[in-house]
Structure formats: structure tokens, C-alpha cells
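Exercise 7b. C-alpha cells:
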């Protein structure tokens, strides 16, 4: 049987039992086919990661777990919650681990991601992007008809009215948060009177239930230097916090006031009324985040560990000072900075072309690679790289412990 891994559906057997998966029949596949695929998966469990064929995506489970713990410990200590963004991992198994660790729900960027997460049994989903096209609005209402715990963002009165009409027609109540612009004008409505007015409208429209607000400043996340990042993040949340107060005074629900990300996870709680952070990249980390510096280490962002790597094989090593690998732009994207060759200094990687990566050696390289050798790359930016793979190998030490489908891979609608 040949089939895309992203079409296979599995359910976690329970919190903490991350390596145990029960195949669930999928439309179009017989139970026998599902069993066969499950057996194929198990063949890879227990092998050394160095024996995996490449390019492939690996997550170091010890590091992943340390990142989950670190986040939960910090937000709990700071009196808020985490509502991790599943746009980063697109993987229901990791979402289950986050929820088992205490997260209050997950976020998605797309309706199709929400559908996948719901299908895998995730019960509390906040979609942080507005649904404006009729097909997406229909799908959002269908999620509610299927009983999903699904809340979506709204930032215009026109969209609120469209959702209200669709919810009424579908016979459901659609849960809504008002998305507030942190100042960058990418998404959201202006804080203060415009946002308050929209919240009041949502509260009165039939078929809608106001749950609160969200305000996410993407630009704040990668500001270099903790003090500057803190200033920017708190500054951009200030007007949303004032709006939340006005909403409360007007008798409106502010039970959700969500914001923040990996760069500001230990800053945003200083904003009064904020309930949770929509952290994404912290589970994996990447080269982009390493450069921002933290409160503890101003040079490198060491709050979380680099857990995600692309494993790649050397295809050509016959020219001095360079080697060609099988992981090019299609395995790594062309985001900058370029991926980092794990465990090597004096060696740089560039995604030379679609199919090939180029490694260049400098004088102090610790070793020179030969054809067939494998090496690991710490990815540039985790979200788009994950979206290139059907599955992720969970590795403990050097051994594959679990293979997780990246079930929402390619779900960009
Ligand atoms: C709306 C929203 N919330 C949260 C996040 C998570 O950010 P990070 O990966 O920096 O934690 C993102 C990422 O782009 C986002 O777009």
C-alpha cells in the first residue's frame, strides 16, 4: 500500500504515552491497510537516527520535553497560561503533549489546521486568523456543528455580521475573540473605541458569543536584546489592556486575553488582564530565535533548546573545501540565517539549490565529510520547514522512539 503519511490518522493512547499510537480507520483505507502502515512505522522505531534515510526531520525528545516543561513552569509561575500555536508543529501528537502538560488550549492559523486538530480530538482551538471567505466561514460553522471547541478571531463589523448570519443558518453558536492591532497594522482592529464597539456588536449579534480578545505583536518577538524586546512588547500590548478594562466595565466577557509568543513568553504577563501566551517556536527553537538573546544570556537565546533538525546525507565530497548534501531549499526553505550544522564550528551550510545543500569548510573544521556521511542541520525557521515533511522522527539519544505524522502539513487554506 502506498499512501501519504499525512492521510493516516492516529490517536494518542493517552497523556504521557507519546510513543503509543492507535491507528484509526480513515475514509478510503481498509482496516488491513491501516494495520500494514502501522507496522511499517514500527519498523523505524528503535533504529538509530543515523540509519534513517534523508532528508528527514527529527526532534530530540529530551529537548522537546525540556522546552515544554520550561514554558509551563514559567507561565504558571507568572500567573498566566500557555495556549500554544500549532502552526509551528502542525502535529496533533505534540499538541496532545502540550495539553497534557497544562496548556489551556491550542491555536491554529488556518481553518484546515483547526479541522485536523479537531479530528484528532483536540477540544479547545483558537483560530488566530480571521475567516472572511464564504467557504472558510462555512467550514468554521461545520466545525461547531461537529461539536468542536472552536473560537475564531474577528476584526471588522462586516465579518462579525457574516459570521452571525452563517452561525444562525447553521444552527450553532460561534465563539469569537476580537483581534486587536498591536500597532503594526497587519491584522486586528484599532484598540480603544473601535475595538470596544466591535466587541459590543459581537455580543449582541445572534449566533455569536464573545469570549474575549487577542493581540499579537509578531514584530516584538524577534527584537534583539531582552530590555528592548520587553519595552516593545509591553508598549504594544498597552492599548489592548486598556480596551480589556473598557470591555469589562461594559459587562463584556474578557475571559480570554491572548497574546505573545516565544520571544516574549516571560514578559507578556506584566500586562494586566492578559490570560495566556500563544507560544509556537519554543517547542523546537530555530536559528532565527537563537540570535535574539535572552534575560539570562544576552548573547544567545538559551531559554529553550534547539530540538529540531534536518538530517541530510553527503552526496559529493570530491572538491576541496566543500561538500554537497541532499537537503536543499525543498528540505530547508531559503529562510535566513542559513541552518546551522549541529556540533560543527568552521562549517557553513547554504541551501545551494532546490535539491542540494552546500557545506563549506573553513580552516578550523573539526572534520571533513565523505560521501554517505550524515549530518544534522538546526533549521533556520521552524514553522515553514516542518510544513515540508509528512512525518517527524522523535529521537531519544540516538534512537528513534516514535514517528509522528505531521497531519496538518500543507494545510494552508
Ligand atoms: C498570531 C500568532 N500567535 C502566535 C505566534 C507564535 O509565535 P512564536 O513562534 O514566535 O512563538 C505566531 C507566529 O507567527 C502568530 O502569528
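Sequence design result:
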Amino acid at each position: 500500500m502506498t499512501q501519504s503519511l499525512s492521510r493516516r490518522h492516529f490517536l494518542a493512547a493517552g497523556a504521557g504515552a507519546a510513543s503509543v499510537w492507535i491507528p484509526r480507520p480513515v475514509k478510503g483505507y481498509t482496516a488491513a491497510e491501516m494495520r500494514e502502515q502501522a507496522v511499517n512505522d514500527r519498523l523505524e522505531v528503535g533504529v538509530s537516527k543515523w540509519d534513517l534515510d534523508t532528508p528527514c526531520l527529527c526532534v530530540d525528545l529530551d529537548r522537546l520535553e525540556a522546552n515544554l516543561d520550561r514554558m509551563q513552569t514559567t507561565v504558571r509561575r507568572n500567573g498566566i497560561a500557555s495556549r500554544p500555536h500549532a502552526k509551528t508543529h502542525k502535529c496533533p501528537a505534540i499538541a496532545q503533549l502540550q495539553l497534557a502538560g497544562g496548556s489551556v488550549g491550542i491555536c491554529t492559523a488556518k481553518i484546515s489546521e483547526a479541522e485536523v486538530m479537531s479530528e484528532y480530538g483536540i477540544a479547545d482551538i483558537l483560530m488566530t486568523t480571521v475567516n472572511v471567505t464564504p467557504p472558510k466561514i462555512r467550514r468554521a460553522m461545520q466545525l461547531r456543528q461537529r461539536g468542536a471547541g472552536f473560537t475564531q478571531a474577528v476584526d471588522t463589523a462586516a465579518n462579525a455580521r457574516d459570521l452571525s448570519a452563517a452561525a444562525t443558518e447553521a444552527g450553532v453558536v460561534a465563539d469569537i475573540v476580537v483581534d486587536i492591532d498591536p500597532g503594526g497594522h497587519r491584522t486586528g482592529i484599532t484598540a480603544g473605541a473601535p475595538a470596544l464597539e466591535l466587541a459590543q456588536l459581537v455580543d449582541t449579534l445572534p449566533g455569536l458569543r464573545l469570549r474575549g480578545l487577542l493581540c499579537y505583536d509578531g514584530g516584538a518577538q524577534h527584537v534583539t536584546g531582552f530590555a528592548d524586546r520587553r519595552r516593545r512588547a509591553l508598549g504594544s500590548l498597552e492599548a489592548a489592556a486598556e480596551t480589556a478594562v473598557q470591555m469589562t466595565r461594559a459587562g463584556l466577557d474578557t475571559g480570554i486575553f491572548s497574546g505573545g509568543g516565544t520571544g516574549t513568553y516571560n514578559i507578556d504577563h506584566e500586562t494586566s488582564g492578559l490570560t495566556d501566551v500563544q507560544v509556537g517556536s519554543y517547542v523546537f527553537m530555530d536559528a532565527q530565535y537563537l540570535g535574539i538573546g535572552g534575560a539570562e544570556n544576552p548573547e544567545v537565546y538559551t531559554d529553550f533548546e534547539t530540538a529540531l533538525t534536518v538530517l541530510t546525507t553527503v552526496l559529493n565530497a570530491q572538491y576541496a573545501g566543500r561538500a554537497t548534501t541532499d537537503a536543499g531549499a525543498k528540505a530547508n526553505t531559503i529562510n535566513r540565517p542559513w541552518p546551522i550544522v549541529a556540533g560543527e564550528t568552521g562549517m557553513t551550510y547554504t541551501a545551494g539549490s532546490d535539491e542540494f545543500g552546500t557545506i563549506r569548510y573553513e580552516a578550523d573544521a573539526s572534520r571533513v565529510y565523505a560521501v554517505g556521511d550524515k549530518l544534522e542541520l538546526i533549521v533556520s525557521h521552524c514553522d515553514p520547514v516542518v510544513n515540508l515533511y509528512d512525518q517527524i522522527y522523535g529521537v531519544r539519544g540516538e534512537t528513534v522512539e516514535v514517528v509522528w505524522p505531521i497531519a496538518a502539513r500543507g494545510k494552508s487554506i
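Instructor comment: The first helix runs from residue 31 to 44. Residues 1-25 have pLDDT under 50 and may be disordered.
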